């Protein structure tokens, strides 16, 4: 599976760690930056291109990173076709796949250890959407809203 990943400065070390660990697990990781640590970089410029890559690559998933993950989730969700979920434990990472069919996971690099973040990323990538009609119905409502806005 292809995994698109991006971060701002606040989770730069976490991004480097996840690229290494997920690649070792066999994922095809596409690194959308930041390429170097720059304390003045701005997350929308890094996260939106990553989310656009997920939207343009059916079957892929994305991981966006920042200090808290809040702004990164917001940025990713601006992109048509993206459902980005924020996680702070593995239950959240699992639920955003099972209930929301999220195609992007947002994590805060300042919120947990590298190892705990990797656990959340693995759960997110390994968990399928439940396909339950009640969850699909709600996702369809969101898609319909997105379509109306795009007109
Ligand atoms: O998490 C984030 C956005 O939600 C950013 O990574 C965070 O705001 C960056 O903070 P600073 O510029 O103080 O390092």
From TrEMBL:
- Subunit-level organization: Homodimer.
Under Gene Ontology molecular function, one entry of this record is:
ribose-5-phosphate isomerase activity
Source organism, top-level taxon: Bacteria
Q: Does the keyword Flavoprotein apply?
A: no
- Spell out the family assignment given in the record's similarity comment: Belongs to the LacAB/RpiB family.
What this protein catalyses is: aldehydo-D-ribose 5-phosphate = D-ribulose 5-phosphate
**Pathway recorded for this protein:** Carbohydrate degradation; pentose phosphate pathway; D-ribose 5-phosphate from D-ribulose 5-phosphate (non-oxidative stage): step 1/1
Q: Which UniProt keywords apply?
A: Isomerase
Entry annotated with the keyword Isomerase: yes
UniProt EC number: 5.3.1.6
Q: What protein does this entry describe?
A: Ribose-5-phosphate isomerase B
């Amino acid at each position: 599976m292809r995994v698109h990943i991006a971060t701002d400065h606040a989770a730069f070390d976490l991004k480097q760690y996840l690229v290494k660990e997920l690649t070792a697990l066999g994922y095809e990781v596409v690194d959308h930056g930041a390429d170097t640590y720059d304390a003045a970089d701005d997350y929308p410029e890094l996260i939106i291109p990553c989310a656009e890559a997920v939207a343009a690559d059916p079957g892929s998933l994305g991981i966006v990173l920042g200090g808290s993950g809040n702004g990164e989730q917001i940025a990713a969700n601006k992109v048509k076709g993206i459902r980005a979920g924020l996680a702070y434990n593995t239950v959240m990472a699992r639920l955003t796949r099972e209930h929301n069919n999220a195609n992007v996971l947002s994590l805060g690099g300042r919120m947990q250890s590298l190892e705990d973040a990797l656990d959340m990323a693995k759960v997110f990538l390994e968990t399928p959407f439940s396909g339950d009609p009640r969850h699909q119905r709600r996702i369809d409502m969101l898609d319909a809203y997105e379509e109306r806005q795009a007109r």
